[in-house]
Amino acid sequence: MSILNRLRLNSHLDDRAMAAIWTDSTLAGTRASHPHLGVCTACRTRFASFSEWLDDVRVDAAAEADEVFPPDRLASQYSQIFRRIEAGERPARVIAFPKFSTPLTSRTSHASRWIAAAAAAGLIVGVGVGQMMDLRHLGQTGAARIEARLAKPGGPAVLPPTAASITATSRDEAFLSDLDASLSRPSVPELRAIDDFTPRVGEQPR
Amino acid sequence: MTGAQAAGLPGREADGAAASAVKALQAEGRLAEARERYAELVGRHQRRAVRIAFHYMRDSAEADEAVQDAFVKAYSHLASFREELPFEVWFTRILINGCLDRIKARTRRSRWFAPMPEGPGGQQDFAERTAGKGPSPEDQLLARERRVALTRALARLPERQRSVFMLSHYEGCTSREVSAMTGLNESTVRVHLFRAIRKLRVLLADSTGAGSSVEKRRVNP
Fold first, then answer.
1. Which of A39, A130, B133, B142 has the fewest CB within 10 Å, making it most exposed?
2. Do A16 and B197 touch (CB under 8 A)?
3. Does pLDDT of A167 surpass 80?
4. Range 71-100 of A in CB contact (< 8 A) with B
């Protein structure tokens, strides 16, 4: 056995050496082994205590995580994972934007469009016919129009002329005719000279 | 031996078979059967995934989301899974990357938003302060103090050391597996684990006050 190996075998292990032994065994997934640990009870005890401390750290860490995630929380997480996976496998829905309560293109919209067009055409035809009827009425004589209005049952209440009113009208007309005649020809010979001097309305300069 | 080693090859073989079956069923369009088969994998790895995510995130809600994301992502990308790699390793890598992305996003957010004040006793979440049923109040208090000290000590480790320590020690992964999960080479993994243990030993000894001499002690023959 070389001096180096003998020194290695005889010198006690410090924390650094223990950490190295522990690291190697952990990473290799094997049991910790060192020549000195086989011969020195004190170091074996210390290494056991070192490993125990690290085990406690692991147990504490696991306990902390398990306390935060009890079985019911894990169960809800589990179902949430599969809900998300299922949602991801469903075909994507295309949402129309802006969204209407009824689809933009449908058979009912065609029908309503035709109904609106028919209503508009009917209105135009009605207005046109109405205009033509008015023109026909313009072609009639005034008397006929009056008669027609009078004959209309729903028209304004116009009373028919009485015999007395007709006689009074003709009397007025006769009086006015006589007046015109007397003015147009002077009947008194003595006044004819004065009449000649008197200017007439029609002869007045404008 | 812990974790993966304790599960042994049969567990890994079962994982590999289940993953291959899910892949084939997905390719054939038999999606309901694929989901049913994938449920086996989720059931086997969920607890482990939750622990890893929680130790990374230190926040139950974020850990929950990270685990969900990882399982959904693994299912949808199962076509890219290579059978020569254990499913556990492949999945853990997805999970860790997701956690690291979330931590980065959280760090960015924390630059802009003031943190929420903690509740009485420093607890953050009602679920986290729910007491267990078994141990006495004193034991619970001591355990809680130990965990708080451990959490603080772990938080003071550099990110890579923490990852390597958690994966190798908590999950029982070998250096090869940790290397595949983290992208570090095996010798770097060993160095990180060694340094993590040494630093934790010092930090925890300082925090408890006991065993502070352990670090410096060297017994000569």
1. B133
2. no
3. no
4. 73-74, 77-78, 80-82, 84-86, 88-89
State the Cα–Cα distance between residues A158 and A148, nearest whole angstrom. 12
Q: A12 vs B219: CB contact, 8 Å cut-off?
A: yes
Give residue-wise pLDDT tens across range B198-209. Answer: 898 888 876 655
In a domain, B2, yes or no: yes
Provide the domain count of chain B: 2
> What is the predicted pLDDT for the residue at A119?
94
Judged by CB atoms closer than 8 Å, whether chains meet at A26 and B132 is answered as no
Q: Do residues B190 and A49 make contact, with C-beta atoms less than 8 angstroms apart?
A: no
Q: For residue A61, give the nearest of B38, B76, B170 by CB distance.
A: B170
The answer to whether A11 faces chain B, any CB pair under 8 Å, is yes
What was the ipTM of the complex prediction? Answer: 0.72
Which tens digit of pLDDT belongs to each residue from B15-56? 888 888 888 888 888 888 889 999 999 999 999 999 999 988
pTM across the whole model: 0.59
Q: Which of A59, A85, A86 to mutate to test the interface with B (most CBs of B within 10 A)?
A: A85
B39, A19: Cβ pair inside 8 Å?
no
pLDDT at A96 (0 to 100): 72
Question: Which CATH number covers residue B42?
Answer: 1.10.1740.10
Residue B183 is part of which domain span? 136-210
Q: Which of B89, B80, B61 is nearest to B22 (CA)?
A: B80
Q: Which residues contact A137 (CB under 8 A, 6 or more apart)?
A: A145
pLDDT digits (tens, 9 = 90+) for B50-90: 999 998 888 899 999 999 999 999 999 988 888 778 888 89
Q: Which residues of A touch B143 (CB under 8 A)?
A: 60, 63
Q: Is residue B219 part of a domain?
A: no
3-state helix, strand, coil in chain A (%, to 5): 75, 0, 25
Cα dihedral value B47, B49, B55, B57, nearest 10? -120
| Interface contact A58, partner B, CB < 8 A | yes
Same domain for B105 and B39?
A: yes
* Residue B18 covered by a domain: yes
